[in-house]
Structures are given as structure tokens and as C-alpha cells.
Specification:
alpha+beta, seven-stranded mixed sheet, six-stranded antiparallel sheet, 18 helices
Length: 636
Amino acid sequence: MRSPRPLAVICAVAASAVIGGVVILCTALAAAGLPSPAQASPAQSSPAQAAAAQAPPSLAFTVTPRPSRHEFHVVLRCAHLRGEMQDFEMPAWMPGFYRILHYARHVSRFQARDGQGRRLGWEQVTPHTWRVVTGHAPIVILSYDVAATRPFVADNSISTTSAFLAPPGTFLYLPGQLALPATVTFHLPPSWRRISSGLAPVAGRPRTFTASNFNLLFDSPVLMGNQQILHFRVRGRPHTIAMEYVPASVPRGKIVRDLRRIVEAGTTLMRTIPYPRYTFLLIGRGDGGIEHLTSAAISFNGRDLTTPAGYRTWLSYVAHEYFHTFNVKRIRPLALGPFDYETENLTHMLWVSEGLEVYYEDLLLVRAGLITPAQYLATLQHEINVFENEPGRPYESATESSWYTWTSSYGGRGGAAGRNITISYYDNGAMLGAMLDLAIRHDSHNAHSLGTVMRALYRDYFLRDRRGFTDAEFRAACERAAGRSLAPIFRYAATTAPMNYRKYFGYAGIRVAVRSAPAAGATLGLDTDADAGGLVVSGVRPGSPAARAAIRRGDQLLTLEGTPASARALSRLLASHQPGQTVTVTLRHDGVRRSVWLTLAGRRKWTYSLRRGAHPDPLQAATLRRWLRRTVLASR
């Protein structure tokens, strides 16, 4: 074997050959008795080194709440990264809350180091992205602080006694690698004893939890402090209640029994239980709830649970968020997964994902024996009256409200200003859900129901195809269950046409009475469809200003007082004018453009009442019985 030439000589020869290009460099290497790059054999490595080179990135978070500073200190240890640079991103929103929240603006004191503690260069290259010069370092450690000052279930918050962690606003991820697993270890203040989450604990590692992927991690909020812990099981699966700020006078045994019955009612309807464990995070301060894959985070006024009415309303709230574990977390529109965490994920189907929850929240209480059918019908009557008297009712459809929720008052449930320009897909969807359920039951002679549809969507799209459904696929599933077209109901979803409550509730022998009285505000007396290439008239009320101006169904509204026509422009116009004032509308009818002047009429308030009919026929009686039947026996 020839002895190698000194390294200094090799380096000197190679350095002197740089300007000569590759040929001179290869010649220098040959002169040194070494192979050229083209001839060199791969470097030999140990099996452990070879395995490390092929291993996927490993990501481990450590989170330390700092109550005195109202912030979380986060450390992310990354192993097996590759390349000269690596981007790290933070989501801009939380699934289940359809609003861009700009979480990254709460991050401060960002640092990056290698495994030896050497600083690494970095820049924030977008509002949500940090680019780190990792330089092929085998270990990269990031540290940063996250402000936690807003007590809301979509944000981080810390008090002296507890903390709520919203994962999308806390954890960074590698773009394009959401399938990677991650672990999270918590270092709590000495007086804090408990951590509650839907995440799975890591055996043998106290206060450490694991997520099989980042979608699950982002969908698993964490409550820390000294919250009370209660337990129950359904179908062998453990359910945990983590609760704080609920008065001691509220019986804990009753809470456990009632939540168990809600879970039993939901899983009986769906005929499955889709998770290994489930956690209710119940925070008795605040107002807001968000569903998650294996948990629900719900904030409320704990004192409300001390009254029968307040407790019953709270049960509806819990049932709403719980049933989301099926509807939207697993049965979902195509747009709602896989998620793009950096921007809006738009869909026309939130009236299904959220509105059907409003329909089912109290129906589950009936099935669980927690309210009576009469109480349910009274609640449904109230919801109809709320929806039908929303100022935006004649001007925005359920599908349009779903689409625009990211930029309007949330779900149409914002303040008064928001109410003037939108409707709530929660309220609208609840009405549509009731009509779908009753139509399917009637048309199939009670062989099928909306529950049949939900189970089919779960089986066909979540379990089999591992994806969401399209708008057309949802409609097709409903019509398969009914055995015929349900076009009128889907027209209600896409337009502002008046709903025929008498027809659909009549299927269950329910009589619907309607009264009207003068109300504040102005109207043109027309219904619109904003999903047909513009603002199109879908209906004209007899005797209304629109009818007197010869506006017809199918006319396209072009401008309103010179402003391009849209549902929002129409609603703003009506909000800014009084009955008796004249407005100019430009429209197109049969290809002919014309302008009309309309004198606004006064609005009317509608009052709907639901009553059981005295003499239902056999099908009506059977439909009512099966619709509002109890499916859960009283808990012991």
C-alpha cells in the first residue's frame, strides 16, 4: 500500500488548481494518489450512520408555561434534517374556527442553534415562515416564546392557576411534511398537577404526549393546571372530563351521567365509536367551543349550570361539539381536509358541517332522554323564528353564507352590523337538516333517515375513500336514502326562497301556523340566488315593490343605486334606507338591460308555531315516533 501524501500538499495542489477548473483538480487528485470525484467510491459508513441518513426527521417539542409573563416558552428539537436550509411554518388558523388568526404575530425571541449550541442564521421570510440556515447540522434546536393573553378556545391563554394551549398557535411544522409524528413534553409550574388533552401519553415518560401526525397535533388542545378530572366509558372507550370554574353546587355525578348519555346517543346513531379515547375540556369562564378529533374545548359561564334552563342549554352546547367528532372531523366536505394551514379553506357546505350540528344537538338530547319531544319542538320553533327574522334572510343563502364566513361575521352570528349583511348557516342549516330528515323518512316510509345519510358518508368517504365528499355527492347520498329527488330542499340551500315548513313538518303530523306583524327595516320583496353567476332573482313576493316593478324570477340584478349588485350590497342598501324611500335598480331580463325605480316597503316580523296535529295518519304517527324516539336507557 502506498503511503498517502501529506494533506497540506493535497490542499495546496487543489487550491492552486481552482482557476483551472475540474480537469486540473482531478489531475491534482490523481497526482496525490487519490481517485477523482467521478472515480471515487461511496464513503463507507456504519450501519447506524446509514440508518440515520435514511431516517425521517424527528421532532420533539418542550413547552414551559410562564404565568408571570403570560407566555409559553417552546423548544423544538429536530433530528435528521437534510439540506442547507429548512423552512418552519406556523398555521394561520385553527380547523373548526373559520377565521385567519395570524398566530405567528404572537411569536417572539426566536432563536436557532445546532446540537453543539452554535447559533444558526435565520430570517422570517413570510408572516408565518422562518427559514433557518441549518447547514446540514444533524441536530437543530429552535426556541421561541408565544404570547398567551386571550382567553378563547382558539387562542393561547395563561393565568396564575391554569393555561390553555391552542396547538396551531404554538407549534411549528415542516412544510409538506404534516405526516411526521411529534412528541410534546410539558414542564409545569410546581403547583400545577394536571395536563388534559386528547393526545396519547407516552408510556414511561411523565408529562409527555405523542401525535402520529401534525394534523392530529394541531387538533389536540391542552388544558393545564389543577382542573377536576372525571371519567366514564362508552363501548369500552375511555372518556375524560377535565373541568374548571364550575360551581361545586353542580352535581358531578349528574354531569358524568348526562355526558355519557350524549355519547351513547351519538354513537348509537352512528353505530360506531371512531376514537381510542376522548376528552371534554370544559372551561367555566368564557364563551366558545371548538370540536377536535379526540376532544372538544368548550368555554362557558360556569354559573349558568346552577339553573335548570342554563344546564339544559349547556348540554346542547356539549352535544353540538361532541357530535362534530363525526360530522366535520370525519364526515366532511372535500375542502376541509387535507388542510392548507396558511390560507382560507373555502366551502359552500358549512350549512351541513355546522348547521346539521344545530339540528342534531337537541335531537341527541331527545334520544338520550335528557329533554322531552315537546321541549325539542319548542326549541325548533324558536330556531325557526330566529332564522326567519334575520335581516339578511331574503338576501343571502346558506351556501353563500358558508362561502363568505371567513370574511364576514362568524357564521352570521356576529354583532348587529354583521347581522345586517348575512344570515347564519348555523340557523339555516338546522332548518334544512330537519326538512331533509323528515323528507327522507317520509319518502322511504321510515326505512331511512338523515342518520342513514350520515352513516353512508362515514362509510363511503371517510373509511373507504379516505377523503371528503363533494357538494354533489352529499346531495346524491340524501337522494339515495329518500329514493327520489330532493331538489326543493337543495334549492332552499342555494337560494333565499321561502321554505315550505308546513309540507315537511306535516310529514310528522306537525302543524305549522304563521303570523306576521310590522317590523323595523325596509324590503324590496324579492328573493335572490347569489350562486348563479351573479345576483339572480329567485322569487318575487306578490304585491311587493319588486312585483309592482315587474321584476321576475330569473332576472339578473346588475347595479343597486349604481353599486355592483351582490347580496351584501343589497343588504347594505336596505340597511341604509327607510320604507317609502325610492331606489334605482338596473337589471337584465331576457338579455335586455333596463333600470327601474322602486319604493321600499316596510318589513314584517314572522312568528311560527309548531303543534302536534290531533289526528295524524299512520305514516305521520310512525314518522313522529321514530324521529323523536329515545334510544338511550337511563344511566344507573
